[in-house]
Amino acid sequence: MQISNEIYQQYKPLLFSIGYRMLGSIVETEDIVQETFLKVYQIEEDKIENIKAYLCKIMTNRCIDSLRSPRHKREEYVGPWNPEPLLLEESHGLNPSEVVLQNEGLSIAYLRMMEHLAPDERAVLLLREVFDFSYSEIENIIEKKEQNCRKIFSRAKKKVAGIEAESLNYAANKFIVDRFIQAFERQHMNILLELLSENVTLYSDGGGKVKAAIRPIHSLSNVLAFLLGIAKKTSADYYFEIRNVNGQPAMLNYMNNKLHSIISFYIKSDKIEEFYIMMNPDKLPTS
Question: Which helix H or strand E contains 178, and what residues bound it?
Fold first, then answer.
């Protein structure tokens, strides 16, 4: 089947959106997107009734296979695992609209919650809740009966209960992030206590490639102490900027003329509940 450029451009954002949310990896998702189009290219056109449904079926099932493969076992990963940040203002030279369809289900917090789900649970939850596929469509995509898909969705929803309370208002969350940064720089503890949850948690992902906390850091006092420790070790040329990462405001930190780390936030009820620090150089944007 000859895949036209029009079909490729039309469905690539949808396939990338499904894959990235399932895998949390930009590079792996892009590879599977290309494999999906290559697979369709090898099939006779008259054997495909619905090109969108067929593309989604191949993409989803290849992601499920990837998640079930040995290389996806997080037990072997050094320290906390965070999804690969998606810098939407650049998106590897593409317009954000060419990469993801919407911000729902895109935040680092949501993608981390996907880790609590089995591969088929991720697929059903995303297809139903984020992409609004009907259960009959999902049945055809993952080849499980509709009744079973409903049960899988219900089970997955229970596992990620609470993440829906996350605010996705970029402007409101940026205001909170800006206040936090100013209060942190000036060490205004009263404002920090107002902005941070008492049960705040920090996940630092170095992947064994750079020095980072190998376990999650819990509690307000411990998290602040850890952040202060990092601040004291910054180089003289350190600077940061606030950018759109996974649809939410995040800090891009630069040292020695290169991107050193990205700090993302999970904000709930106007309080910072979680920090995600990406330090693994293999998962930082290079452009």
Answer: helix 170-186
